[in-house]
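Friendly challenge for the regulars: who can give me the structure tokens for this chain first? No prize, just bragging rights.
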Amino acid sequence: MVSTVRGNTGSKPTRESLKTCVFLDFYLIELTGTREPLMWYFAEMFVTTFVLAATLLVANSPSSGWRAESQQSPRKAKASTQAVLVTKGQVENGVYKNDSIGLQFTPAGNLHLQAPEIMGTPGTVPLLVKVEADADRTLISGLFSAPGLTIFYADALAFYPEDQRNATRYLKKVSQTNEAEGYQHVDAKGPVEISGVSFVRADFAKSGVHEAVLVTTHNQFAFVFIFAGPDIGVVNKLVESTNVKFIPQK
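First reply, four minutes later:
Bragging rights claimed.
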């Protein structure tokens, strides 16, 4: 790896490549305590593995294109028509539950729910409730297992014109945001139901990341699930392993 960085092609080394070489030489000496060839070989293998793992973790990170239009183009807040004051919900025993929007969901077993967030002021719109479920993203798991991610958010539809308060039109907004960020819309056959709840679906791909966006509407909200992984197989397994349930709103 060090010889590759130094460039054995006969070309003149750049200032950046020389800085990299100095860093790697210093790092390898610190790691091994010697310049003995055999120890350097194993040290180089370690550094190569570290760089590869870091590259995979970055490559499989999802886009920021999941954000709803209400986040992309902030507008003046206005009073909401929701009868129930919206909260961010809570995570208990691996299940996300939010009575104020009438939904609970359990992600795939290899994902871990993070703390939910609320964006906006309850009682006004725009208002977004969001929770993520992430896979363990260590260096070792990044090398030997398929990472995955599920993002759920609920977007108050009162923020949008009446003719745009349906799943199909909302999905179109998300698709336009993703495409503006360089994601390509791809034809991908996969589930359009989660636990018997019907969704509209669109799939996207960019730089080794596959995303499936599923949208439905309920209780004057757009419920959006975004599943991301290295390929459609991983994404479809995430969809199939997710449980969604509508619950009484209160």
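The first helix runs from residue 2 to 6. DSSP finds seven helices and 16 strands in the chain. Your move, everyone else.
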